[in-house]
Amino acid sequence: MKNKVDLNIDDSKIELNLVKGSENEIGLDISSLRTESNMITLDPGYKNTGSCKSKITFLDGEKGILRYRGYSIEELAEKANFLEVAFLLIFGELPNQTQLNKFLIDIKENSIIDEDIKRILESFPKSAHPMGILSSLTSALIAFNPEKKISLDNKQNGDQDYMYNSIVKLLAKVPILVAWVHRRRKGLPLDYGDNNLGYVENITKMMFQLPNQDYVNNKIIIDAMNKLLILHADHEQNCSTSTVRIVGSSEASLFASVAAGISALWGRLHGGANQAVLEMLEAIKKDGGDTKKFMLKAKDKSDPFRLMGFGHRVYKNFDPRAKIIKVTANKILNELGISDPILEIAKGLEKEALKDSYFVERKLYPNVDFYSGIIYKALEIPNEMFTVMFALGRLPGWVAHWREMRLNNEPIGRPRQIYTGETLRKFLEMGLR
Ligand code: ACO
User: Do 37 and 31 meet the contact criterion of CB atoms below 8 Å apart?
Assistant: First the structure.
């Protein structure tokens, strides 16, 4: 393959470099286009724009492949635990036992939250959405964990100690906030968990322990939590991760960048889809369970209804995470002895969509969020907490991208635009308008 291509514009020719990735993906480097031609590229929604080179996650949407640092998602979901995967994503290699122990100890040493944060949490109205609370509290943590002053020689950007401390603090404190948000909704007293437990075991205890009762971790629940968190841990340059990278590119702190990522995840076209899916399935059930009626609504262009949990910007074959989650949902419900009619409605919708030409032609398949809500529901996590659970899983991905971006000294993110507004006009005094 040539490593340059020619772009002909009228009578002039511009030579642009091609960039090849380790999995043979090819990108056209347009960074010299503007200086040589005064043109920019236009790609609303960045549907075909690479914003960076990254070594973290590879996905092939046509073949349904997802790998973290070269390891297949299927193998990680089967064999690893969430903390191992977090370490892998952030630092590039699977940890050995000593590295993993140290990582967990460093996280635990930071698992204290200022009491004032509790007061801020309590000041939110009971009806506030948990994602708004989580984003606000993550931002509020900055006030209690002040940043080192940025040195004039810009050393902080590549300062490994500064980054490591920020990372373990964030991985320690955000799960406590998640658990607290959940407990407050349930009217339970806030809890710091037990530092003798593993990372996911402690999160589970912090969320579910009832007052004055011993908490015994249930292996089925821990396995399900590990799987769900691993499957959500990273997904390369999605909306929230791009947000984290772009906020971080202004040298904003990790906490500030992740708080922005949480907000970006909230919308129902992204992480908020898991809540929207369950609400949709419950609405279909309440309506009598006629899946065909809702399929027609999803295809009707004059109806704003979309089949939530279907379709993906990148996956045009199947989402490998959805396959794993579907099997896991069946298994968890069986193991917990739950029979949920919503699972049957979901399977029915999927079956119909897979043979419907509208969905087949547009390559719309179930995504990661189509079956995840059914598992969260079985774990007695309320609908409005689903996207918070997604955020908990996505933390290592956001952290890994923020760190990579800093270590690469990437420039500030700042797209261009094609202006289509008014040209220069004269200001008219009030009486003349
Ligand atoms: N139901 C019905 N029609 C759909 C759906 C859907 N869920 N998704 C896409 N389409 C249709 C669109 O109407 C469009 O049709 P057209 O070509 O006739 O106009 C076509 O498929 C392409 O859709 P776009 O919106 O252009 O695709 P895009 O890549 O921009 O959007 C997205 C991807 C946002 C995920 C979309 O498929 C969607 O809204 N899905 C439902 C929400 C959802 O599940 N989001 C979670 C994604 S996974 C995640 O972020 C964790």
Answer: no
Q: What are phi and psi of 310, to 5 degrees?
A: -115, 140
Sign of the dihedral through C-alpha 94, 99, 101, 107? negative
How do residues 290-333 score in pLDDT, each as one tens digit?
999 999 999 999 999 999 999 999 998 889 999 999 999 999 98
Is residue 387 exposed (0-12), middle (13-18) or buried (19+ Cβ within 10 Å)? buried
Cβ atoms of 148 and 163 closer than 8 Å: no
Which of 102-112 are b and which e, b meaning 16 or more Cβ less than 10 Å from the residue's Cβ?
Answer: ebbebbbebbe
Are 142 and 256 contacting, i.e. CB atoms less than 8 angstroms apart? yes
Catalytic residue status for 129: no
- Angle at Cα 22 formed by Cα 20 and Cα 27, nearest 5°? 25
The one catalytic residue in 235, 312, 319, 356 is 312
Work out the angle at residue 356's Cα, subtended by the Cα atoms of residues 353 and 359, and round it to the nearest 5 degrees: 65
Query: Model confidence over 127-160: pLDDT tens digits?
Result: 899 999 999 999 999 988 776 655 555 555 558 8
Taking a C-beta distance cutoff of 8 angstroms, is the pair 160, 185 a contact?
A: no
CA nearest ligand 1 atom 46, residue? 270
Site to probe by mutation for ligand 1, drawn from 280, 284, 310 as the one with most ligand atoms within 8 Å of Cβ, is: 310
Concerning whether 11 is annotated as a catalytic residue, the answer is no
Q: For the segment 12-60, what is each residue's pLDDT rounded down to a tens digit?
A: 899 999 999 999 999 999 999 999 898 999 999 999 999 999 999 999 9
Q: Which domains are present in the chain?
A: 4-66 (2.20.28), 73-270+386-407 (1.10.580.10), 273-378 (1.10.230.10)
